Amino acid sequence: MTEIGRLLGSGKEAEVFEYGALALKLYKHAAAKASAFREGANLAIVERLSLPAPKVHAVGEFDGRWGVVMDRAPGSCFAEQFMTASAPFEEMAQLHRRLHQQSGDGLPSLTARLSAGIRRAEGLDASLKHRLLSELESLPDGDRVCHGDFHPFNIHGVAMIVDWLDACCGNPLADVCRTYLLLRHALPERAMDYVETYAAMSGAEVGAILAWLAPIAAARLTEGVADENDELLRLAGVA
What domains can be seen in the chain, in order of their start residue? Predict the structure, then answer.
């Protein structure tokens, strides 16, 4: 059996280790079996679309933790070059659009995922949840690949995109809005630059992208990001 090697990276949900010539993503929670199989299934779906994602090799239990064995991402993430105000977002937006040109058939519904998140979110009263669900229902659904966690830290080497756990089938503009929400926290001075770059490149309206912000912020309240909660509640519409 291949030995687990050195730590390559760590996030809120998982750690990634060397695993021979491959990479092993181990979830931090012992009960993360469903997450491991979900990400493995998502990677298998996007593999047939020839998208720049790691190939999945196995899903299983390793030293008492559930994980996914996949291709190792080459090089470092793109994040460093986006930390400066002058770095352009064109390459990232082009890569994002490449995903959105593919059918998301077989992936979970993005709208259904957001709806479930809003229903579970704490800090929202019944009236606000009802309004957010109605707002979500009024937004146009879609059938494209949506990564669900697309940001510079998940883009590596020659455009390999990692972390496909939250991949869904839905409206690309919702996926862009999710990226905007993530960038608001990590790179607040650059977040709107990305929306405007994607909009100019795709012909979408900035307003149509930001129309998804309230339901997406509300759904993110279920993700355990305590340092973002006050801002997420405000964006969701809590006075």
Answer: 7-71 (3.30.200.20), 78-236 (3.90.1200.10)
